[in-house]
Structures are given as C-alpha cells and as structure tokens.
Automatic annotation (TrEMBL):
Alphabetically ordered keywords of this record: Chromosome partition, DNA-binding
GO cellular component, one term: chromosome
InterPro entries attached to this UniProt entry: Chromosome_partition/occlusion (IPR050336), HTH_ParB/Spo0J (IPR041468), ParB/RepB/Spo0J (IPR004437), ParB/Sulfiredoxin_sf (IPR036086), ParB_dimer_C (IPR057240), ParB_N (IPR003115)
Phylogenetic lineage: Bacteria, Pseudomonadati, Bacteroidota, Sphingobacteriia, Sphingobacteriales
Family membership: Belongs to the ParB family.
NCBIfam families documented for this protein: parB_part
The protein's name in its UniProt record: ParB/RepB/Spo0J family partition protein
Keyword DNA-binding included in the entry's annotation: yes
GO terms under biological process: chromosome segregation
Domain called ParB-like N-terminal: residue spans: 46-136
Metal-binding as UniProt keyword: no
Entry superkingdom: Bacteria
Length: 304
C-alpha cells in the first residue's frame, strides 16, 4: 500500500505540520503489517505498534461517542485506517499521540495491532497547538468545546486573539463571539454544550448585563421554546425597561431575583406559583391546587 500525506488540513494545522510529502511503499496490503525493524524516522509515515502509543495529555476532547467509535472500528476492520494518526517519539519504543485519538481508540476497539502514523518532532507547546487546532477543525464540535479550545490556546500558548484567528483561519470577531460564551452562567454553557439552546440564543442572552437577567431569559427560552428572534425581542424589551407580553396580556413586572424565587417554587410544588410583591418588601405567595388530593400533596411538601 502507498501512504501519502493529504493536503487541506487547514491553514493553522498545516503550518504546524511540515507540508513535505513523504511516501512509504509497503508490499503488504494489510494495515496490520509488521513495521520495519529500524526506528521510524521523524517526518515520515510509518506503521507502528498500537500498544506503544500513549494518548495526548493536551487532548482538549474528553468525551467520545461510543456508538460512533464502534461504527468507525467496524469500518477499520473492513477497509483499514485511511487517515494516519500523528505522533511524536517519546522514547526508543514509545510514542505520544499528537492528533487522532478517535482513530486510535477505534483501531484498538477493532483489534488492530499496528497503525499508520505520521512521526513528528514537536515540543509541548506544539503538541498542545496541534491537538487543539485539529480538534477545532472537527465539524461535530459544539460551541462550548470550540470556546474552551480557543481559551486554552490563548492561555497556554500565549496567543493574542488576532494570532489565534490566524492559526485557526477565523476572523477576530468569530473568535471573540466564541470566547464570550464562557462568560455565561454555567447552566447556560451546559445547555449550549448539550444543544438545548443555540449559539444564536446565547448571543442574544449575552446582550444582557447581570446573571439574574441572563438566567431569567434562559428560563423563558427553555420553558417556552422561544426562537432566536423571540429571544432577541425579549432581550430588547428588558434592555428598554419594558414589561413583557405573555399570552396576549401584560405580564406584571417583578424583579429578576423574585422571578427566580417564583420559578424555583413552581418547580418545587410542581404547579404554577404566583409571587405578589408590594412596596417595603410586603407580599404574598399564591399556590393554587385543583383538588383535595392536590392540596394534600402540597401540604405534605410543606411538611404540614
């Protein structure tokens, strides 16, 4: 088989990985063929033992879809590994993974003993950059994972936002928008990661100052399935100090702190709770019930 380095890895990654084409011919067409006895040279594609490869300690990705790994492993069993992984030598008979952990995991799952690999010379910072850039270029990466990778490159590689943009082939405004996501409350970041809310929703919420306001809008988005456009309208209404229309009526304005208390109580009692707040801190809490059994349930929750 003839292995040949592919181009088109992206401006940032190809700049870190030397673009020199290296070709190695093997007479055996099996990807599990035994490697040559000599030590693989840096800069080439070699077939190396899987059990001599340790994972990249700088790998930004920590979660891998098990079903997707199994599907890739099945494909490797049938077709072999098409795209080599990238490693650096860490000893006479050991290598450290730079990029391709998903391919390595799937190869192990497929029972592959030897794997084609680019052998590179790289220091720790280059290792980090290569791993992060390769990860950023993945299409299935969610926005929070991209943002965290950007932040790591800034913090650990001492890059400015403009330099980071050049490395990952993105303009500064795009980099800034991703980094701003990390300023949101953790619960909203988790929702973005899990695709509960979109990047568009997040950008709208970021237009508000204060965690309480952001959490309030987030709850409205998730509870009422607001579109990005409706979310932007809600944010503008809050920014302009207007009351918010709900179900055709004007919703009585209460502070976001009280709104959170009201929402928490509604969650606790599993029913709609009304918090009426007057001046000087006076007010009342209304907990409706629909039957005697429902009243008994609420009284039990109140430890009555």
């Amino acid at each position: 088989m003839t292995y040949q380095k592919k181009t088109g890895l992206g401006k940032g990654l190809s700049a870190l990985l030397d673009d020199t084409k290296v070709v190695q011919n093997n007479n055996n067409n099996n990807s599990q063929a035994e490697p040559k006895s000599e030590i693989p040279a840096a800069g080439g594609i070699n077939t190396i033992p899987v059990d001599q490869i340790e994972v990249n300690p700088y790998q930004p990705r920590t979660e891998f879809d098990e079903q997707a790994l199994k599907e890739l492993a099945d494909s490797i069993k049938l077709q072999g590994l098409i795209q080599p992984i990238t490693v650096r030598k860490s000893g006479n008979n050991s290598y450290q993974l730079i990029s391709g952990e998903r391919r390595l995991r799937a190869s192990r799952l497929a029972g592959i003993d030897h794997i084609p690999a680019y052998v590179r010379t790289a220091n720790d910072q280059q290792m980090l950059e290569m791993g992060l850039i390769e990860n950023i270029q993945r299409e299935d990466l969610n926005s929070i994972e991209v943002a965290l990778s950007f932040q790591r490159m800034i913090d650990e590689c001492n890059l400015k936002q403009e330099e980071l943009g050049d490395r990952v082939s993105k303009n500064r405004s795009t980099v800034t928008n991703y980094l701003r996501l990390l300023k949101l409350p953790p619960v909203i970041q988790v929702a973005i990661r899990d695709n509960v809310v979109s990047m568009g929703h997040a950008k709208a919420i970021l237009g508000l100052d204060g965690v309480d306001k952001q959490l309030y809008v987030f709850q409205e988005v998730t509870n009422n399935h607001l579109s990005v456009r409706k979310t932007e309208e809600l944010v503008r209404a809050i920014q302009n100090g207007r009351s918010v229309k709900k179900e055709g009526k004007e919703k009585e304005a209460i502070s976001f702190q009280y709104q959170k208390i009201q929402d928490d109580l509604a969650s606790k009692f599993d029913t709609r709770v009304k918090l009426k707040v007057q001046s000087a801190g006076k007010g009342a809490i209304e907990i409706p019930f629909v039957s005697d059994d429902d009243l008994s349930r609420i009284l039990e929750l109140l430890d009555w």
